[in-house]
Structures are given as C-alpha cells and as structure tokens.
Amino acid sequence: MSDEPIQRRGRKTGEAVAANIRRRIATGELPIGAKLPTEDELTEAFGIARTTLREALRILEFQGLIHIRRGRGGGATVTMPDLARLTEPLAVVLQLRHTDVADLDEARLLLEPHLAGELARNHTDDDLAALREVLDKATAAAEADDRDAFGEAAAELHVTLIARGGNETLSVVSQLLHTLILHRYTRAAHQSDQDLIRRAVRSYRRLYDLIDAGDAANAASHWEQQMKWVTGVSENDLLNVFDRDA
User: Fold this and answer.
1) Is the pLDDT of residue 58 over 70?
2) Is 69 helix (H, G, I), strand (E, B) or coil?
3) CA 124, CA 114: separation in Å to the nearest integer?
4) The dihedral sign for the CA sequence 124, 126, 128, 134
5) Whether CATH 1.10.10.10 fits 13-78
6) CA dihedral 139, 145, 151, 154 (to 10 degrees)
7) pLDDT confidence band for 9 (50 / 70 / 90)
8) Average pLDDT value for residue range 55-69
9) In the structure, what pLDDT confidence band is assigned to residue 73 with cuts at 50, 70 and 90?
10) Strand pairing of 75-78 and 66-69?
11) Between residues 67 and 242, which one has the greater pLDDT?
C-alpha cells in the first residue's frame, strides 16, 4: 500500500489517517472487498502509533467503510456503506425541523415526473421487469384490500422509479428517503378505501404503459397528476416515522 504524507494540521492524526484511507476507497484504489494491510504494515506506512491507527480504523468502521474481523486471520476489509443506517438520522433531522408531509411531497414532485419521462425515454428490459414486479404487488394488495401491503408496494414503486431514472445521486437519495416514503404511503392507504386503491393501481398501470411505449412527455405529465391527486386525498401531517400506529 503506497502512502502519502499525512496532513496533521487542523485535525487529529487518527482522523487524518482515516481521511487518507477513505479517499483511497472512494477513488477505487482500495476496492470493495479488498483487505487492508496488516496493522504492522499500516503503522509503518503512515509512521504512526498502533493506538492512532486503531482510532482511524474505528472511524472508518463507524462510517461503514470497513468491517473489522477480530482474532486470528482477521483484519479490516473494505465494505459498501449501508444506507439503511442513515435513514433514521435523516428522519430525525426532518422531524426536528418540523417538516410536514406536504414538504416531502413537494420535494418529490420536483423529481419524480421528470424521472418518469427519462425512464420512458431510456429504459431496459430489466427496468420494465422491476416495475412490473412492483405493479403486481400493488395489484394483489389492492384486490385483497390489504392496506399495509399496498402502502409498501406504493412506496416501492416510487423508489423504483427514482432508482431506475438514470441518475445515481437521486437513486441514493431515494434510498435515504425510503423510510419516509413508506410511512407516507402506508398512512395514505389507511386513509383511502378499496376503490381509491384500485384507482391508484390503474394509474400505475397507465404509467407503466407510457414508459413501455417510450412516451416521455405523457409519462411525466401523468405521474405529476397522479402525485398531485394523492396529495389531494391525503392528510398533510408532520412527518412522524417512528409512530407506526399513527
């Protein structure tokens, strides 16, 4: 493992070492699944004490960038951070800011119709298969009048649409928002009746057909109207993802 001088000014040495290794992970110099050199090799490469190195490794482990296996044959392995660990802190921040459901819907309304159009313009068979799978879940839940299952399917459809829209940044954002979106659509399902849920499924099928046909303008327009309709029939309470029975 090649090394560069560690910049210690303005931060602790352990933090500087962690930042150095983090940069190498981000640039692919240390790919996912790679094992870091041994403690002896790292302390020699960075010119630091073992306690300082362990501080750096704890920082990286907390950030989800490495997994440390203790004992004989152990060591540190580079891992992909689990976004699920970030969803609840994000939800707490939004709740502390007294964010309401209308604010969440407004943010999503700026994104999803555009991505629906992009997906219609440029999609693969895998994209269509992913949408069909979610659509089947929503259909089954609507016919069974299972509100919880329908809320889960509706949230999954919105997240799938963003994830498949061709923008990696928004795909990550959608994963971070998944908990909030799930709670939002579960509440909406319980505030609706079976006729409204079936109407939503018909709208989902219409979106699928427009995407499949490559009709970008109408896909975007249709999804914008669908999202506005859901907002119109739902309550816009404060976000409260931890009150599961609300």
Assistant:
1) yes
2) strand
3) 17
4) negative
5) yes
6) 20
7) very low
8) 92
9) confident
10) antiparallel
11) 67
Lowest mean per-residue pLDDT among 21-30, 125-134, 177-186: 177-186
Burial of 153 (0-12, 13-18, 19+ CB in 10 A): buried
Residue in the block written with tokens 């500087």: 16
CB count within 10 Å of CB 50 equals 11
Burial readout 164-178 (b: 16 or more C-beta within 10 A, e: otherwise): bbebeebeebbbebb
Q: Identify the helix (H) or strand (E) that includes residue 50.
A: helix 50-62
Rounded average pLDDT over 23-44: 94
Instruction: State the residue for tokens 């999954």.
Output: 156
| CATH 1.20.120.530-classified regions of the chain | 84-233
Write the secondary structure of 117-165 as one string of H (helix), E (strand) and C (coil). HHHHHCCCHHHHHHHHHHHHHHHHHHHHCCHHHHHHHHHHHHHHHHHCC
Which residue(s) pair with 238 in the sheet?
100
Beta bridge partner(s), residue 68: 76
* Residue intervals in the chain for CATH 1.10.10.10: 13-78
Architecture of domain 84-233: Up-down Bundle (1.20)
Nearest CA-CA partner of 219 in 134, 128, 105, 107: 128
Tokens read off for 127: 């994209």
